[in-house]
Amino acid sequence: MPKILLQPLYFFAAASILLIVAPLLGLFYWALELANYLSLHSAAVLLIIAPLLLIAGKRLEAAICFAFATMGILFVMPFYVPTQPQTSCNPVQRALLINLLKENRDYQRVTDYVRSANPDIVIFEEVTPAWDDALRDLRDEYPYWKSVPRADHTGIAILSKIPDIEAEITTIGGNSPPSVVSNYVLNGSPVLVIGTHPPPPFGPIAADAKKLHFQQLAQIIKSHDGAVIVLGDLNMTSRSSLFQWFVHDTHLRDTRLGFGLQPTFPVSSPLFRIDIDHALVSSGVAVQSRRLGPDIGSDHYPVELDYSIQC
């Protein structure tokens, strides 16, 4: 292979390796955290480059590319390893996470989807005043309702069929958007359901605010004596070092394990779609199913979680 063709391969290989390694150090510098959005794509690029380098006789360089690509593949594999079915004596409930997209005007498609999915709890994100009005059509089916609509992307709401649920919309971590912190009791077992939508870490100030958000969110979770469910567009993938710290500190479990990676955003670009909409649960929650909903006019797919609270 001519040297002039090797140079671009070396450049893209080096850039891809950097994007795979950088998220591991994201807690130390905000810009490195941004690489978590492209780390899996970078592994795919290395899988293309490595055979080309091997054909060119560059065995060491090819081996390095294969090694770093393997890092990305090994991270994804646990999501596709079948898990043992989890059982519970409590009934199965369904939670739904929907990022509406404030520019979306397909109100009927959203309400029709919610009715067909028939969840017990729905967390809506990017709730604008217009969306707040449109979603009132669901109030007959969902008597418990609390919302804080906003003109930007930070509005949030909770709808529930659970009669004794209590919810508070509060700010976690100072300058973060509002979050929903709700509680209910099922057959004597306390359940905490949190809906949250922290900002993306675009810049050092936003990155510090996001880190503070998850530190305080972790404190709320660890102070709860019972089952915990966290739903939200967390604006980071599971390769993020902040995400890894959060699940380790709170002992929450990613509900995608055994169900696949399920990337949610952006709907319009399958090739570059990433997993930033999450459903995390504590050890007291038995996951029955985790899947994505249909295209509802948003740039995010909804997340459907079927769970039961363990006795």
UniProtKB/TrEMBL annotation:
Residues 99-300 form the Endonuclease/exonuclease/phosphatase domain. It comes from the Bacteria. One of its GO terms (molecular function) is catalytic activity. The chain crosses the membrane at residues 9-32, 38-56, 63-81. The keyword Transmembrane helix applies. Keywords: Membrane, Transmembrane, Transmembrane helix. This is Endonuclease/exonuclease/phosphatase domain-containing protein. It comes from Fraserbacteria sp. (strain RBG_16_55_9).
